[in-house]
Amino acid sequence: MILLETSLGNIKIELYNDTPVHRDNFIKLVGEGFYDGILFHRVIEGFMVQTGDPESKTATKGARLGSGGPGYTLPAEIVPSHFHRRGAVAAARTGDQGNPMRRSSGSQFYIVHGQKTPASTLKQYSRYGFEFSQEQLKAYEEIGGAPTLDAQYTVFGEVVEGMDVVDKIATVEKDQADRPTTDVKIIKATVIQ
Length: 193
Description:
The structure is a single chain. This protein is α+β, with helices and mostly antiparallel strands and 193 residues long. The protein is 18% helix and 24% strand. It has helices at 20-31, 119-123, 134-142, 163-170; strands spanning 2-6, 9-15, 40-44, 48-51, 73-74, 88-91, 104-105, 109-112, 155-161, 186-191. The strands form 2 sheets. The protein has an 8-stranded antiparallel sheet with strand order 3-4-8-6-9-2-1-10. A two-stranded antiparallel ribbon has the order 5-7. The longest helix has 12 residues, at 20-31. The termini are close together.
């Protein structure tokens, strides 16, 4: 379990054991203090809030962020049972064109804020060769999420406490690049039991 103490409140994250590369890397970075002082640099209400760019620690107001990391990427660990429901924690990555193996950023991650999507809308995606499970259809309709990201990004955990804080982060005022106009930061990240 990870505790993120943010400038808007605390978020507790449970990490999944069946994505061990991402789990172990996240625990290592938290233990090193990597996330302490890092900003939520990309925030889109109804979609997700993203953080983990080390360049954000010293970024000037309005600076474009999102390309920083620890200097390595991680192999994808896309597990079908972990999907982008509201509160899912997943690794950010560069696009398919330059990253066909869908390798994850070594440090950047996002928390799904999400919105509710009717099952009838989701069933239309099947024409692209992707079928949602009954569990996914039910979750997206009842609690919401970001279904268009499924099977493309590694989901490696979920928020177990503090979704009200994610809601606060998701609804702050932001600039044209979706960066909050008033910094929202991770004050401290800690491994807890």
